Amino acid sequence: MRTLVLAERPGRGLRSRLLLSLLPALFPESGPLLLATPAPTAPEGFASVPAQPDPAQLGIQRVVLAGVFEEPAKLAEALAIAATALAAGAILETRAFSLARGAAPRDPPPGAELLNQATRLELRDWFTMDRILLWQIVTPEPRLVPYPEAALPPDPAFDHELPDGPLLGIAVQDGTRIRAAWPALLPAVLDALHDRLGTLPPGLPILPLPIEHPGLPEDDYLGTQAFAEALLPDRPLLLPELANPVWRRRQWSPGRLKAAVARCSLVITNQDIPAVFAQACGVPVLGLVLSGDRRVVTPFGQLANTMAPSSALLYPRPASSSARA
Known about the structure:
alpha/beta
């Protein structure tokens, strides 16, 4: 069955690469999945087709919406392509499908009614389920398959690249608004670190855990670097290769990220994937809610009962209130 995959900016950043990597095993009978992308090449298990494909010309029999949609325009674009495919006789499914809050207003966006024609609605998180139900999309019955990427195996060859002893993993987005929110939260983070790790080792190494595409304004390697300097100045930052965009794109894989998370004694993040991997590896995680960005709130709400002991979600507090977690 010729299958077309529609994703927002496919392959841009580790999150997209990770969620797309789950799909070939779900459709083994389809051969290479066709991925709508402006890139000339596609990841393993995929073949690239134009970003604005003609489903009828390609003989598409199934369309799969996959990954996280953050921009309303990109969701509308994907739904329009899917509608063309369905008009030509294809079926529609969603897999590992998430809606960021910015792409999911309370009122249904144009084209959302098409999801009522899906033969399978698999949703990655409770927020997406909430929005799907709010939009009155109930046929077929939506299925919640929470964070399927958690089952990804770590890269077994990666651990030797890290030093022995405790490591502090950090993944914090960059950006003007995010940086402006740090001062209100740093005291609570320091309190939480002392509560969970006791007296911090003098040279406690910091392991960056970036997932964003290098060079974007939200690049979480640069954000992590700055946050680590503000939180624990002069602590060594491991894997300096991550500062090289080419190395990061070619060498920093989802499996290596999970192996890195597994080596941490504690993870600090405002990102979803590092929090999900920490939960899967039994590593305590401090989730940071910064400047109204709630992407880490969703996995905490979904996985709270299975998070490692000492995990916590930290919100900025007014200067006059207690800063303890």
